[in-house]
Amino acid sequence: MEQSEINRLLNKIAGGQATIEDQNKISQWLKTLDDQSLEEFMDRYEEILKVYKSKRKDNNLQTLIENRISDYERSRKLINRRKSNSLLSIVGKVAIFIFILVLGYRISVFLQVAESSPEPINALASKNNGLESLKTISPGDKRAVIISESGAEIALNSLQIGQWIDFGGARIRKSGDGTIEYDQTAKNPLQNIQHTIKTPIGGEFNVVLSDGTRVWLNSASSISFPNWFDRKSRDVSINGEVYFEVTKQVYKSEGKVPFTVYSKNQRIEVLGTQFSVSAYADAEEVATALVEGSVKVSTDKEIKLLEAGEKVAVNKEGNIRTVVGADVEKSIAWTQGYFYFDEKNVSEIFQELERWYDVEFKLEGNLPDEGFGGRVSRTKNLREVLHLLEITELVKFEVDEDLIIVRKGL
């Protein structure tokens, strides 16, 4: 059987679209393979199973399948440790494959990639896919600059770990995990000196502000704030995508000190909470996802109080809409080192990849706006990520020097 036909059948099986004829065809073909070929085939299919995960809420069936896959993985690790390629291991793989094959037509699926993959991802895609000429493009890393009101600038990744330095009326240092920390115990600091931390395309960074609030900046993002907050207000402004864990600050005389985030055409008021704001300049909407606590999102037109687990989007006219069925954990997946493609259209997906890998995509033709989903590690290089997207057969790629062209797949 031709490799293209094998890939087509595997994707139909994993995608829940295989007919009885398809299942019979692949089952008969399996009988013709020698042990080594069967091992290679099953390893490849195991990776495809990690790429796909049930989208339908058939929890009993999904749990059953995942348990069988986990049993297989545990048995394979045991067999590998014993350096055995016994007939039992082959039979076990075939049995599990046939089990999934029979049930596969009941499952609709979406892309889900394990955090670490034991097999080369590139082996999953066709060799004639236009990506072989793509140079290795590494993922982003921790990079940012801090700029004071006077224009002084420091590359934060160049700072030595643990050493306090004076900068723009504040004392800062880089901790062991690379986070920039503002001295929360400084006495009589110079107030009202604005600081701005910026990440470039392909950069991210963490900072702990002078009040103890923890901030995560995604790529091509920035936050501006005073070197020291007073007892009346804590105001910051952001561009791009930023996640906050805001500390509560209460004084006997002044009471609770609000924390306010300004971004594009909205304002967020909080007291102590965890939330994410995505406010890129080229985005149609500003999205706010609340993980814990409560926040008030305001525009010139509306005010919306968010409870934990809610997400809203604000358009350019200042209208606020609730994102129905949103999973806020997916909105902050980037802080844990993942892309999550759920709830995003194809344009948003490739914009996110552009910002992380510092590349340019050109979208051509009538591309699908649905079908992508799931999670991909941000530590993978660009070619690996694009191969994984191409496996879905929803898109295909062509490399033209430094431009990557995206077209509709099969």
Overall morphology = elongated
Average pLDDT taken over every residue: 77
Helix/strand structural class = alpha+beta
Termini separation: 19 Å
Number of DSSP E strands: 28
Description of the structure:
- The protein is built from 8 helices and 28 strands.
- 26% of the residues lie in helices and 30% in strands.
- It has a 19-stranded mixed beta sheet that branches. A 3-stranded mixed beta sheet has the order 25-28-27, covered by helices on one side.
- It is elongated and about 80 Å long.
- Among the domains are: 3-112; 251-326, Jelly Rolls (Sandwich); 333-408, 3-Layer(bab) Sandwich (Phage tail protein beta-alpha-beta fold), CATH 3.55.50.30.
- Strand 16 (259-263) and strand 17 (266-270) form a beta hairpin.
- The protein is of the alpha+beta class.
Summary, kept brief:
With 410 residues, the chain is of the alpha+beta class. Among the domains are: 110 residues; 76 residues, Jelly Rolls (Sandwich), CATH 2.60.120.1440; 76 residues, Phage tail protein beta-alpha-beta fold, CATH 3.55.50.
